[in-house]
Structures are given as C-alpha cells and as structure tokens.
TrEMBL record:
GO terms for molecular function: acyltransferase activity. It comes from Dyadobacter psychrophilus. Gene3D superfamilies: 3.40.47.10. InterPro entries: ACP_syn_III_C, Thiolase-like. Residues 286-363 form the Beta-ketoacyl-[acyl-carrier-protein] synthase III C-terminal domain. This is 3-oxoacyl-[acyl-carrier-protein] synthase-3.
Length: 380
C-alpha cells in the first residue's frame, strides 16, 4: 500500500468576526427580548468571536457548498490549473443547503475548473469531517487515487435566527406559557459558527516544506448504547426516541421549531468525555503508543467547559497530556462542527513551529449520538 500525506490545508471564513456583544444583532431577539441563557452559555464556552455567512438582516452571503468550494480552491492558489489533477472530492457537513442533490455534488458544481471525478458526501455531525478525511486517506493509501481533496463545512447560522422560533413563541403566548425559548434550543445558538476547511491528501510528501504523514485514523460509535443527545429535524420523545419531521403535520413543524438544532445538555455532560476518551485509551494501548510521544494534541471542543474534563479524565486514566501540547482555536473561531478540526490543523500546519518527526493527535467527539474519531499524524 502507498503512504498518504496531507500536503496542503486551507480554510474559508465568511465575512468579519462577530463578537459576543454583536450576536443578537445577527441572530435576533426572540419575542423581542434578550436571551436568558446567552450570558451563562458564553461564560462556560469561552468563545469570544465567530463567523456567520449572513448579514444582520438575515440575507445570506454564501451557501454552505460555496464556502466549501472556496476552501478547496484556496488549496490551489499557487497553481490554479492543478485542480484539474484532483481525482476525488470528499465533502462533509451536518448542514447541507438542501436534502438533494448531495452536498458533495453541490460543492463540485462550484468547482468549474475541476474534472469529472469521484464525489462522496459523508453525513453526520462533527465526525463527518473526519469521515470525509478517512475516505480520502483510504483511497490514496489503496493506490486508487493520487490527489484527493477532503473538505468539511457548516452553515448553521440561518437556523439560529430568532425568526425560526417566532411561531413557537407565539403558540406559547396563546397557551399563556413562558414564551422564552427552551434551554435545549437556546443553548446551541451561542456556540455555533460558519466556515469551511479542506485538506489535500497525496501519495507523496511535499518536495519542499513539511507534510503530515497519516499514521492512522480510527473511530467508534456508541449509538447502540446511547440515545440521541443533539438532533435537528426531529423531536425527542419521553422514551428517548426521535420523532422525525416527516411524522409531524406541517403546522406542527413550525409550532415546535422542529428544524432547530437541539442539545440534551444533561446527557452531554454525563457522557461526552468518558465514553470517547476511554476509547482513545484503548486505541493507544492496542497500538503501543504513549502520550509522551505526542507533541501536539488538537481536541475539537464545543466549549472550554470540557477542556478540564478531558484533562482530568486523561490524568486519572494514565495518559496525561501536558497543557503545553494542547491547541484549540475555539475562542476565536467558535464551534464550526465538522470543519473545526480542519481549521485547527491549518493554523498549526502553517505556524512555522512544527518539526519533522513530531506527532500530532487529533480528537473529535460528536455528541449527536456519541461518536468519536481519532487520528495520528507525523510531521515529515
């Protein structure tokens, strides 16, 4: 089998960063009142700025597929004709612009200079970006592809806007109930960000400068054991099952904000760290790897609240990670879902700090139904 390397990384962030104070100017006030939970959530998640692919009046500035295509295009800025040599496009998102065609096909549609190539569209949430990456990695490693692009992108800002919840709030008012949005829906409004990232994966490293050899990528799901924790296009029933938007009447979809993105916060706190990082320990033991060998640890965090939880778990389970090795850009980029790990690695890759032989560990937890992806890279 061939080796596989990340040889280039690019990202695209729409418009200017949005500060905490500006958020409701973009997302709006529900029932004309400031959110009760905003200050609490922001204090815990530690995010100071994020990006939205929309203007303050809600007008879209970019589609999801367009942002992904712009990130891909930036991989080939120095030689624009090189995009014609790409033989695979693997595109992930949790927030496609439409149900059909596939997200990957829509991204390919923006890449007018690319050839007629294989396109795949892994679905999911945060782990989807790693699934897209793994498909590209395996295709190159098998020798079936020579120049593969993996990308991940998110555009969730439109479903975070207040007008998405107005019918639900008006229904609550009619019923003389508290018209404030339920915490499980309001929680993620202050967490999520838009943007895209892309990797170029090749069978040979760069002839000058650094590359990242992909040592392995492993993942697991606990959906057979755990109920859904984050969901969209469905409502959670008392027995923990999900009722699809397809099974609601059209007026109920609006009245219950079924297409909002929701988080079971209690379940998140109980499960997200201990399930995934117990699996990481198993992987490291099986591969005979010590955390001492890792030079950079890049965990995808939805909130800095979990940073200490991960550190405590790793310390208590014999795999301590020195804080000098940690890197995250959550504070400045927000949670960009499946694209977050791409943006983090892009910053490290072009930092000028990497030395050949150093190892980078990527960790991506996904709370939707508790899935995890881990990856080891070696600087070469």
């Amino acid at each position: 089998m061939s080796d596989a390397y990340i040889t280039r990384i690019a990202k695209f962030l729409p418009n200017e960063p949005v500060s905490n104070d500006e958020m409701e100017a973009y997302l709006g006030y529900i029932n004309g009142k400031p959110s009760k939970s905003k200050a609490l959530v922001l204090r815990n998640n530690g995010i100071k700025s994020r990006y939205y692919a929309l203007q303050k009046d809600g007008t879209a500035t970019h589609t999801n597929a367009e942002m992904a295509a712009l990130a891909v295009t930036r991989l080939f800025e120095k030689n624009t004709s090189e995009i014609q040599d790409v033989d695979l496009l693997s595109c992930a998102t949790s927030s496609p612009d439409q149900l059909m065609p596939s997200h990957g096909s829509m991204v390919h549609g923006y890449l007018k200079d690319a050839g007629s190539i294989e396109v795949v569209s892994p679905s999911g949430v945060c782990c989807a970006g790693m699934h897209a990456f793994k498909y590209a990695y395996m295709s190159v490693k098998l020798g079936e592809k020579q120049k593969a692009v993996a990308c991940a992108s998110e555009r969730l800002s439109p479903v975070l806007r207040s007008d998405q919840f107005e019918d639900e709030v008006q229904q609550l008012l009619k019923l003389e109930k508290n018209p404030y949005l339920a915490f499980e829906k309001d929680f993620l409004r202050w967490m999520l960000s838009d943007g895209a990232g892309a990797f170029l994966v090749e069978s040979e490293p760069n002839t000058s400068g650094i590359s990242l050899k992909i040592d392995w990528i492993e993942g697991c799901s606990y959906a057979n054991e755990q109920e859904a924790c984050m969901y969209m296009g469905a409502d959670k029933l008392e027995d923990g099952s999900l009722k699809s938007y397809k099974d609601f009447k059209s007026e109920q979809v609006q009245e219950h904000s079924v297409f909002s993105i929701k988080q079971d916060v209690k379940l998140l706190g109980e499960k997200i760290v201990k399930l995934g990082f117990a699996k990481l320990k198993d992987i490291l033991v099986r591969k005979g790897i010590s955390m001492d060998e890792v030079s950079y640890f890049l965990p995808h965090l939805s909130s800095y609240f979990f940073e200490g939880k991960i550190e405590d778990f790793c310390n208590e389970n014999g795999m301590p990670i020195s804080k000098e090795k940690w890197y995250t850009n959550l504070v400045t980029k927000g949670n960009v879902g499946s694209a977050s790990i791409y943006m983090m690695l892009e910053e490290v890759f072009y930092s000028g700090a990497l030395k050949k032989g150093e190892k980078i560990l990527l960790a991506v937890p996904e709370s939707s139904r508790f899935s995890y992806m881990f990856c080891m890279l070696t600087v070469c």
